[in-house]
From TrEMBL:
Protein name (Swiss-Prot/TrEMBL): Uroporphyrinogen decarboxylase
Gene behind this protein: hemE
Cytoplasm found in the keyword field: yes
InterPro entries, per the entry: UROD/MetE-like_sf, Uroporphyrinogen_deCO2ase_HemE, Uroporphyrinogen_deCOase
Record SUPFAM superfamilies: UROD/MetE-like
Sites marked Transition state stabilizer: 77
Quaternary structure and partners: Homodimer.
Molecular-function GO terms, alphabetical: uroporphyrinogen decarboxylase activity
Gene Ontology CC annotation, any one: cytosol
Amino acid sequence: MPELKNDTFLRALMREPVAYTPLWMMRQAGRYLPEYNQTRAQAGSFMGLAQNPDYACEVTLQPLRRFDLDAAILFSDILTVPDAMGLGLQFVAGEGPRFERPLRDEAAIQALRVPDMDRLRYVFDAVSLIRRELAGAVPLIGFSGSPWTLACYMVEGSGSADYRQIKTLLYQRPDLLHRILSVNAQAVQTYLNAQIQAGAQAVMLFDSWGGVLADGLFQQFSLAYTRQVLDGLVRERDGRRVPVIVFTKGGGQWIEDIAATGCDAVGLDWTANLAAARRRVGDRVALQGNLDPMTLFGGEAAIRAEVRRVLADFGRVGAGGHVFNLGHGISQFTPPEAVSVLVDEVHAASRAYHEA
Ligand code: CP3
């Protein structure tokens, strides 16, 4: 494998000195890019795109051709794992993901198993192909859903407004939910290790729905299983550390607990203040975030001002580490020109915060 030409992202995650703050965006490959929509139309469906390594590689690289981003993220979805468990993933146009066979009774939960990783071969093949095509330009991020966030979809069967099904299980039969979560933790650990084996240079756990849990229950039903995943992850490959980012949407209040899982970086949504977060965890971990994705609808002056505010909140980087990102995924309605402004401002305005 060729040497990395731009390792700013990995260095920032390791809290090593860099000249500017690196940047990538959650959902950077997606529907706001016309070229993505064109490739998706060719593939016929979202899963057609994700399951074909050539298409997956193509859409992974699309945002990097347009913008000077400091990392690539594997094009896939967190729901590939429950799909491989046999739940029957479908993407209904305009409705989002849906499982044909959600976990709704004890027998289905008892029958749940860690899937054969051969069923996810297309993901690992995409990782290897993307690494080859990147040719060392920037690092490649692998990812998975957290055990809790996957369980939400597996029990609800789709996105949910109130999480009624999974919370009924949590309060009525916590033993059954713990069984799902421990199968998920094993599956996610094996899945991420296979991505690292295939060439992922950093990995991120998306705990998108951790923030819907009550304090105390978050630690028990989400964080404990994230920690189990991390405890068995391969953390070094080809003589270089493979950093781990844990992103919990709505998790700002638990930042000390999240940092204590052993992750290298904590991802924060836009409701958290980076200065306050840094005061609480010090420089024990890097922080990733946290511009409100809707800022990208505010026009050039607003984008530049909000970027400068986020950079100023993190402050002089010193012995810390900051990776710039949105606080959640980019909206499909975002004008691509807004992203050019974002990238320009982050790279230019951040330099002052890295001077000795
Ligand atoms: O970030 C990237 O560019 C990499 C690709 C990526 C996708 N999904 C592609 C995708 C990643 C990292 C994800 C993660 C994911 N998927 C999460 C965690 C991140 C988060 O947003 O909190 C979640 C919760 C999912 C589940 C999921 N997949 C939903 C809810 C949807 C529908 C969303 C929508 O906007 O319609 C998807 C589909 C999906 N995954 C799309 C993309 C680009 C859009 C589908 C399409 O092209 O038709």
